[in-house]
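Weekly modeling sync, notes
Attendees: AB, CL, MP (scribe)

Item 1: holo prediction request
CL wants a bound-state model with zinc ion before deciding which constructs to order. AB pointed out that an apo prediction alone won't tell us much about the pocket. Agreed to run with the ligand included and paste results into these notes for async review.

Input as submitted:
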Amino acid sequence: MRTLIKGGTVLSSTGSSVADVLVDGETIAAVAAPGVFADDAADQVLDATGKYVLPGGIDAHTHMEMPFGGSFSNDTFATGTTAAAWGGTTTIIDFAVQAKGTSLLSTLDKWHEKADGNCAIDYGFHMIVSDVNDTSLKEMDACLDGGISSFKMFMAYPGVFYSTDGEILRAMQKARGNGSTIMMHAENGIAIDQLAAQAVAAGRTDPVEHSLTRPPELEGEATSRAITLAKVTGSPLYIVHLSAAQALAAVAEARDAGQNVFAETCPQYLYLSIEDMAKPNFEGAKYVASPPLREKSHQADLWRGLRTNDLSVVSTDHCPFCFKDQKELGRGDFRAIPNGIPGVEHRMDLLHQGVVAGEISLERWVETCSTTPARMFGLYPRKGVIAAGADADVVIYDPKAKQTLSAETHHMNVDYSAYEGWEIAGKVDTVLSRGSVVVSPSGFSGSTTHGKFLPRGLNQYLG
Ligand code: URP
Ligand code: ZN
Ligand code: ZN
């Protein structure tokens, strides 16, 4: 099957030009000046005139069916990857979660069981290491052989995912040895748990307390500590879901000093704030995630970080819990609200608003949402670029279309939208995943058995 995508403005991380894209089977065969290919060179022709043609989005941070606090995030791999496709994301990297007392390899098997044959788009896994011991450290090598080249650790959630500095140091030494990347949830969970217990004891139980008891200084402190441990061990470090100016300053300082430190932020930190968490009638619970939403003043710093590349990736941290039944668990005690915000469907759209507002360029949109995640997590040039030989994961995006975000119309399996009623400039028109049209103006035409597991290589930013 050959598809010709004609007349669109083809975007990359370095520029844009009007060009035609010829897809042959699952890969891109050629990108050429308009008119080089005759229409009869293809079995189908997609007219992209007036639209952008960009590499499919790569969301490097999602949680489908994730166990958390006695509940599971509500998107399955099937529903979550379908929603991702609707929004122009053609690859996700989800987190396999090692429970304490279990092995990394059995965890990996479990996540393959959940995802294999159940995804609409291609997918990979990171591994969450929550039990550092001789066996799990050894298993990090075996994970690499299985295509898992990044390991997330937590400085938050004592008693659940939390690792001590000593445990983090040991895992970093292993990463330094085998070339993998340590991803860090950088919040000082020991101090946070004290503040949270004090708030509840004083009768302060509303959702907004989740943010007030996780001050940005404790994200900045943990980020600095993680950077120091990475420096001592020589391990590359990737800070996930960075939300606070203090943490960004620590990342920028380390990068200026030449350390292999990278960071991502998420749309919720660019657009939402602690004011959302203070909404009445427990509505604030919809916005409970960790790190928490901050004062609006942090947002300008985050946009600047995206421009300067101190923040090099935008991921969603998609972790959907329904307002009714799931978020409800924390009525009367904010500590029991399942942590997470849905977002996998709208990352490309929300970051396109940053282009419209002049915060980032078109090139930076593509770079932070597709090309850099591909390079960071060992998928480039198969993913993250429109070029001959790459997988034909292609989005035709109409910048002139308008849409309104709403739980009524989204495809994520969750009963609310964190962006309910927001008017967005731009909309996905057509999405190809490995050469197959999976979304078009007539709707979803993909299948939840189409997505393939992506064994990943090492971080391509390391020397
Ligand atoms: O609140 C969040 N972020 N939930 C998902 C788990 C994590 O820490 O990424
Ligand atoms: Zn986290
Ligand atoms: Zn997460």
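Recorded for review: The chain has 13 helices and 19 strands.
Action items: CL to compare against the apo run; MP to circulate these notes.
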